[in-house]
From TrEMBL:
The protein's annotated pathway: Amino-acid biosynthesis; L-lysine biosynthesis via DAP pathway; L-lysine from DL-2,6-diaminopimelate: step 1/1
Family: Belongs to the Orn/Lys/Arg decarboxylase class-II family. LysA subfamily.
Role: Specifically catalyzes the decarboxylation of meso-diaminopimelate (meso-DAP) to L-lysine.
Cofactor(s) the record lists: pyridoxal 5'-phosphate
Keyword Amino-acid biosynthesis: yes
Residues given in the record as substrate binding sites: 323, 360, 364, 392, 420
The species this protein was found in: Atlanticothrix silvestris CENA357
Residue segments, region Disordered: 1-28
Residues modified as N6-(pyridoxal phosphate)lysine: 98
Keywords on record: Amino-acid biosynthesis, Decarboxylase, Lyase, Lysine biosynthesis, Pyridoxal phosphate
NCBIfam families reported in the protein's UniProt record: lysA (TIGR01048)
Designated name of the protein: Diaminopimelate decarboxylase
E.C. code: 4.1.1.20
Length: 471
């Protein structure tokens, strides 16, 4: 008998098998729990991108982020192609690189024709270093420094202006102090649209630190239209992250087209509309996000029908997904260590990482699923709590995980860790950040080197007078 295990992996009696993936092209990565290339090999071990996960851990160490190139590329292609299919005007998908900003992920996204959304000088520097063309880079941020603004202007990237202070700073920088280049800017507006996601990752409601208040719209358009230093090309909004509902983005797109019409009334030639990101992914079996194709189609249709109704030309349509591009493409492999059973309460099984490599459970109470890579054929007999190794009681990665019987040395694989894991990782308790590899067709390449203890003290400075430690 074949049934579906809570991980979304099929199992036949005691045998777990990833879903048959002969029709990959039709599956939306954000609706899957595991990377598209996942298999169980003849030894009953987990394989991703043609690489045995336990062998990867032996080779590159533990914990290890494992990025499946095929899944990431497929998600990029589905976004890009859906816009081409459903939108009659020009379009551009940007990868919101805050999800995982590093050279390799930026380079893969760019090679699929995506632009990159960056939110700091550091992310901008990384995208430029990855070879991304500046005309496809968009800089966000609610408190960009003058240095970040100057770097953006000199690099020729588009700046998404967030507030009045930033507009004044831009006018001041251009021509007067640093440069005479005329930056391309977009205006970020807070649409006042509510969506059901965690409070910390909602950004589109009125009480948000991001963006201009729509009540100031006329004043903002009037100001920008009188500034020859600024080339205002478009409008931007983003309502939040890990969203499953379809309606909020449709409402947003319709509202934004109205704003386009308002901008035209001020003589602004605003031709780009960026509807942000936010499409959710499946972290657990009950999560039911729309597919990438459905999400894009709904937005394209509403922008087109509203433009027809308003008698406006179609803008260049942009969106900037992060999570739904990269989350499912990556898993984190940990080595299981000690365990502790508290009779009639729970069993804790500890791994060699935790809140420093995945701060999402402790920050947002996010839920994850896991499998044991070297026991894919073993029956599920245990319900355990997966704890990290940090000196913090809340350092729990998964509550009530259903696993086979585990022992120290087993390799636990947590799914869906490509977004907001490495990018939010810390050195809490002075744990070195793990390494990351990209896997494809049986080959694994290091993309982020594991930090060493020397790396951990690299920025430390011990004043001369404190060097004699013994009293
Ligand atoms: C401005 C902006 N754009 C894009 C994103 C990407 O969102 P997501 O990863 O949910 O697609 C975010 C994150 O919420 C954001 O703040
Ligand atoms: N860091 C959040 C998403 C925030 C997205 C950026 N505005 C998460 O892990 O879910």
């Amino acid at each position: 008998m074949v049934s579906t295990h809570p991980t979304g992996v099929q199992h036949t009696g005691t045998q777990y098998l990833p879903q048959k993936r002969s029709t990959n092209a039709n599956l939306s990565p954000n609706q899957e729990l595991l990377p598209m290339t996942t298999q169980v090999n003849s030894h009953g071990f987990l394989e991703i991108g043609g690489c045995d996960v336990t062998t990867l851990v032996q080779q590159f160490g533990s914990p290890l982020y494992i990025l499946d190139e095929e899944t990431l590329r497929l998600a990029c292609q589905q976004y890009r192609d859906a816009f081409r299919q459903y939108y009659k005007g020009e379009s551009q998908v940007l990868y919101a690189s805050k999800a995982w900003n590093c050279l390799t992920v930026c380079a893969i996204a760019a090679s699929e024709g995506l632009g990159i959304d960056v939110v700091s000088g550091g992310e901008l520097y990384t995208a430029l270093s990855a070879g991304v063309s500046p005309d496809k880079i968009y800089l966000h941020g609610n408190n960009k420094s003058r240095e970040e603004l100057a770097l953006a202007i000199q690099s020729g990237v588009t700046i998404v202006a967030d507030n009045w202070d930033e507009l004044h700073a831009l006018v001041d920088i251009v021509g007067t102090h640093v440069t005479s280049l005329r930056p391309r800017i977009m205006l970020r507006l807070t649409p006042g649209i509510e969506c059901h996601t965690h409070e910390y990752i909602r950004t589109g409601h009125l009480d948000s630190k991001f963006g201009f208040d729509p009540n100031d719209l006329d004043e903002v358009f009037a100001f920008v239209s009188q500034q020859p230093a600024l080339n205002c090309v478009g409008l931007h909004a983003h309502i939040g992250s890990q969203i499953f509902e379809r309606q909020p983005h449709q409402d947003l797109a319709a509202v934004m087209v109205q704003w386009l019409r308002d901008a035209a009334n001020y003589g602004l030639n605003v031709t780009e509309l960026n509807v942000g990101g936010g499409l959710g992914i499946k972290y657990i079996e009950s999560d039911d996000p729309p597919s990438i194709d459905e999400w894009v189609k709904a937005i394209c249709e509403i922008v087109q029908t509203t433009c027809v109704a308003e008698n406006l030309p179609l803008p260049k349509l942009l969106s900037e997904p992060g999570r739904s591009l990269v989350a499912t493409a990556c898993v984190t492999a940990y080595t299981i260590g000690s365990s502790k059973t508290i009779p009639e309460i729970r069993t804790y099984v500890a791994v060699d990482g935790g809140m420093s490599d995945n701060p999402r459970p402790i920050t947002y109470q996010s839920v994850y699923r896991a499998v044991v890579a070297n026991k894919m054929s073993a029956p599920l007999t245990e319900t355990v709590t997966i704890a990290g190794k940090h000196c913090e009681s809340g350092d729990i990665l998964i509550k009530n995980a259903q696993l086979p019987k585990t022992e120290p040395g087993d390799i636990l694989v947590v799914m869906g860790t490509g977004a907001y894991n490495y990018s939010m990782a810390s050195n809490y308790n002075r744990l070195p950040r793990p390494a990351a590899v990209v896997v494809a067709s049986g080959e694994a390449n290091l993309i982020l080197q594991r930090e060493t203890y020397e790396d951990l003290i690299r920025q430390d400075r011990l004043p001369e007078r404190l060097k004699k430690v013994e009293g």
